Amino acid sequence: MIDVYSWPTPNGHKVHIMLEECGQRLDRDWRAHGVDIGAGAQFEPSFLKISPNNKIPAMVDPIGPNGKPISLFESGAILMYLADAYGGLDTPKTRAAAAAWVSWANASLDPVLFVENERGGVVDTKARDPNNKRLRRLDDVLASRDYLLGDFSVADVAVGAYLLYVPQFFPDVSFAPYPALARYMGRLALRDAYAKAFGADARRYLVQKCVSYVDGD
To answer: 134 with 108: CB under 8 angstroms?
Structure first.
């Protein structure tokens, strides 16, 4: 059984969502271990053995490459491993294109969406800006396709986990200036894996919020 060490953050939810998208079910195929980052659990020696940079998420797959255990940290690396090992991401072209978006989510989207305090806690979002250049570019890309690579992929897990965090914690923020992006968020929220990761009530709320961005309610 895969062991996931995480906490309810966008990076943590990425791994939960990806496992469910790959058909790996909680308590059947993987189990969650809470790492309370607010209480400093990420600095405990037992966790540092898995994640030496004291960050969540981290994961241990007892049946890794060649049937040997593998320990991973950094959400992007975990997502790409799961895509290769369990999600059928098996062509160089698909892998490279997906990896580009996974990297972009961590390096470019995260800083745009979240304002952190000196302790790393999220205190606000830059999505309030109706003319955010990166969100505008993402909106332009999604105007001509349902998902980032055309079909749903690990790229959407990486990007979507960040986007869907915003309406949950900053409900006053509207994505109405980015209609294609809002519709994309709604499609992601409707997927079964999101209900499993966030809970049915949270998924229902997210779908309603995304509809309101487009319809103006």
So the answer is: yes
Report which DSSP code applies to 114.
-
Bridge partners (DSSP) listed for residue 26: 30
Which class does domain 2-86 fall in?
alpha beta
| Residues forming a β-bridge with 60 | 3, 71
Residues paired with residue 2 on neighbouring β-strands, in sequence order: 30
- Topology alike, domains 2-86 and 92-215: no
Extract the tokens encoding 6: 């995480």
Give CATH for domain 92-215: 1.20.1050.10
How far is the CA of 44 from the CAs of 11, 35, 60, 196, in angstroms? 20, 10, 17, 29
Residue matched to tokens 């209609």: 179
> Phi/psi at 41 (nearest 5 deg)?
-65, -20
Of the listed ranges 55-59, 114-118, 155-159, the one predicted with least confidence: 114-118
Query: Residue 158 corresponds to which amino acid?
Result: A
% of the chain beyond a pLDDT of 70? 99
| Mean pLDDT computed over 2-21 | 92
- Looking at residue 151, the DSSP 8-state letter turns out to be B
Q: Domain segments of the chain: what residues?
A: 2-86, 92-215
Candidates 50, 157, 139; CA nearest to 99 is 157
